[in-house]
Design goal:
With about 100 residues, the chain is of the alpha+beta class. It contains 1 helix and 3 strands, in the order αβββ. Strands 1-2-3 form a 3-stranded mixed sheet, with helices on one face. It is elongated and about 80 Å long. About 10% of the residues are buried.
Amino acid sequence: MPRSLKKGPFVNYKLIQKIIINNRLKPKKIIKTWSRASTITPEFIGNSIAVHNGKKFMTIYISENMVGHKLGEFSPTRTFRRHSGAKKIHNSLPFNKTTKSC
């Protein structure tokens, strides 16, 4: 369920301060954050943010299409290894197409 319009989007206070300072700099620095719940606002566009996924920081470049999403959506916490292999079923009697069922 989305957050109330009266409250507005959640953005970590220290993160938004760092974004405002970083927007004034010509060579923009990568900002590290643990705040995965922060919503991406238009001020974030053009910045690179390193979001912690529980093990390491995943660097993401913020574009216009990301506005309104959460930072945590772009740094997955679980690594997909693979699906388990298909298990073969060995039947002792093969299916006979000529046999009619009653």
